[in-house]
From TrEMBL:
The chain crosses the membrane at residues 41-63. Keywords: Membrane, Transmembrane, Transmembrane helix. This is GerMN domain-containing protein. It comes from Dactylosporangium aurantiacum. SMART domains: Germane. It comes from the Bacteria. Residues 70-102 are annotated as: Disordered. Residues 138-230 form the GerMN domain. The keyword Transmembrane applies.
Length: 344
């Protein structure tokens, strides 16, 4: 009888099966292996579920922060300072953070210094023991008053070395800054400008908090009111911020900050209080060679604070960016503010 292909296959398989010797304990061992595999499978599934839960939680918790505004350094180092959005005049707004209240946090805050008896501003990355309104303002003020803390060597604090911040309290739109011993006379030509350095820093930092706008800053020393600071400035009542045209520099560079490293394509951010808002931008390369020079129109003219953002593209190297205005009387260069920076 001729066998079909299917019959020949069955016969061959049966012959192979007959050659297999089955151990007496084969069945129990197979069952045990199956149980172990089942337990391992459940463990893998449980681990996968745990990973999925963590990923889901991360998606819920990590909501991207809005990008910091261009009133501070772009890409100066920490990732939080990589890029910025418009923020309006000094002290008008600030970057949000993902910090959780009552936990240590690293935030970027505005800090005011002086140059040529006028105030200018930098943004500094500061670590807070607790991220709340009072600690944010206290950290910014403490940085502003600390000698040698400015990134630009042309900027300085006007306060004596002995001063320090003991604490900050917020009552509505009035902020109380309690200082330790304020030491001798300030470095400012007028002590009032030193007080305005503190007040301007409080006002700017407050825009990064729920306070938003400060109506006055009460200054105390060692927890006690002081009628006159250094015997010269009336601090018997909350001090208000002076008009910008009276205390701010005529022109200053916001970005790039001094010492910052930027990409080949970057934005120069300028601010100033000048007639008709017309300033000059100049960038020098190696050996002081001018590689960029142009007229820039700010968003507003004096007595308002105007701003402008100028996109540039430069090859890698070290540069100096300068901002200034020309005298209407004789065309001379006035109020130069410059920052050294690098293109990576």
């Amino acid at each position: 009888m001729r066998m079909s292909p299917e019959d020949r296959l069955r016969s061959a398989l049966r012959a192979q099966v007959d050659t297999v010797e089955v151990a007496p304990d084969a069945l129990p061992r197979i069952r045990g292996r199956i149980q172990r595999q089942r337990r391992g499978g459940w463990a893998v599934l449980a681990a996968a579920a745990a990973v999925a839960a963590v990923i889901a939680l991360a998606v819920v918790v990590f909501v991207p922060d809005r990008v910091p505004p261009p009133d501070g350094p772009a890409g100066r180092g920490p990732a939080a300072s990589a890029t910025r959005e418009p923020a309006g005049p000094p002290g008008s707004s600030g970057p949000a953070t993902t910090a959780v209240p009552d936990e240590p946090a690293r935030v970027q805050l505005p800090v005011y210094y002086a140059r040529n008896d006028r105030l200018v501003r930098e943004f500094h990355d500061l670590t807070l023991p607790v991220d709340d309104d009072a600690h944010r303002i206290a950290a910014a003020v403490g940085e502003a008053l600390r000698a040698g803390s400015a990134a630009d060597p042309d900027y300085e604090s006007l306060w004596p070395d002995a001063v320090s911040v003991r604490g900050v309290t917020v009552d509505g739109r009035v902020v109380t800054v309690d200082l330790a011993d304020v030491g001798g006379a300030p470095r400012a030509a007028t002590p009032a400008l030193a007080v305005q350095q503190l007040v301007s820093t409080v006002a700017a930092a407050a825009t990064y908090t729920s306070v938003k706008r400060v109506d006055g800053v009460r200054i105390t020393v060692g927890g006690a009111p002081v009628a006159k600071l250094w015997g010269a400035v009336d601090t018997s009542r909350p001090v208000r911020q002076a008009p910008p045209s009276e205390i701010y520099a005529p022109v200053w560079v916001i970005d790039p900050q001094h010492g910052q490293v930027v990409g080949k394509a970057f934005t120069v951010h300028l601010a100033g209080i000048v007639f008709e808002g017309t300033v000059r931008l100049r960038v020098r390369g190696t050996g002081g060679v001018v590689v960029v020079e142009q007229v820039v129109q700010l968003s507003a003219g004096a007595p308002a604070v105007g701003e402008a953002r100028v996109p540039l593209t430069l090859p890698p190297g070290r540069y100096t960016v300068e901002a200034f205005y020309l005298s209407a009387a004789d065309g001379s260069v006035q109020a130069v503010d410059d920052h050294e920076f690098s293109v990576g």
